[in-house]
Design goal:
By secondary structure, this protein is mainly beta. It has two domains: 5-85, Alpha-Beta Complex (Outer Surface Protein A, domain 3); 94-163, Ribosomal protein L21 (SH3 type barrels, Roll). The protein contains one helix and 13 strands. The termini are far apart.
């Protein structure tokens, strides 16, 4: 006879977070950063509202069911964290598994010459200069850089541009 488990976990949210169980598989969370509704996947477990949290109980669990139980508890904890602290996802753009720098028109960038790509490098006098992205030209960007009283238009490939952080 296969081995079965009985697991119980109570998720207690911190102060400022309110959790409500709606139906068998839906949890509503409300906190300082907003509201979230979590629809849980099917599995051999049950959720119940407690005084100060949510109880997740799994009975007669096999190996796959135990993994799903852990996933459900993690989803509830992540929902609590999301309404308490918020969440930000950064986009990573990659071409042929190499990450790329992507810039939007109007963004400030720094010309930082990468010696690996010397054929497409701008002149060394522009090293470290801050400019504004004005558009695209093929795979490269058009960057406007001030040099003295003049504004120079550079056509620079993404390898030589770094976002301006200042």
């Amino acid at each position: 006879m296969p081995k079965t488990l009985t697991l119980t976990k109570v998720v207690v949210p911190p102060n400022g977070v309110k959790l409500d169980v709606q139906g068998e598989r839906e949890i509503h969370a409300e906190g300082s950063k907003g509201k979230l509704t979590l629809r849980l996947p099917r599995g051999n477990y049950s959720i119940k509202q407690k005084e100060r949290g949510i109880s997740v109980v799994g009975t007669g669990l096999k190996k796959d069911d135990a993994a799903m139980f852990g996933t459900v508890v993690a989803l509830i904890n992540n929902t609590v964290k999301g309404v308490l602290e918020g969440y930000e996802k950064t986009l990573v753009v990659a071409y042929s598994h190499f990450p790329m720098n992507v810039h939007v028109e109007g963004d400030k960038v720094v010309v930082d010459i990468d010696p690996t790509y010397i054929k497409s490098a701008p002149h060394r006098r522009y090293q470290g200069r801050v400019g504004v992205v004005a558009g695209r030209q093929g795979d490269a960007y058009i960057v406007l850089v001030e040099v003295g009283s003049k504004v120079k238009k550079l056509v620079v490939t993404p390898e030589h541009l770094v976002p301006f952080r200042g």
